[in-house]
Amino acid sequence: xxxMSVDRIYVGLNLSGGSWRWIDGSSATNIPWIPGSPSxxxxxxxxxxxxxxxxxxxxxxxxxxxxxxxxxxxxx
Length: 76
Known about the structure:
Blueprint: E1 8-16, E2 19-22, E3 44-49, E4 54-59
Antiparallel strand pairs: 1-2, 1-3, 3-4
């Protein structure tokens, strides 16, 4: 497994129909937003590394996400 150091990554959370939803369509609740977010007009979410924690920030979905992305795998 390749390990890389990034301070912001796309987490697969998007604004859809006025609600924040994961890419599988499930509803997102209790989102740990950074202060001032969501700011409106942006429809994707990135995870930002803070000094002692991680917080979510809304961002524009534009082009290819190049900072990194977080993937999930369903375990059965």
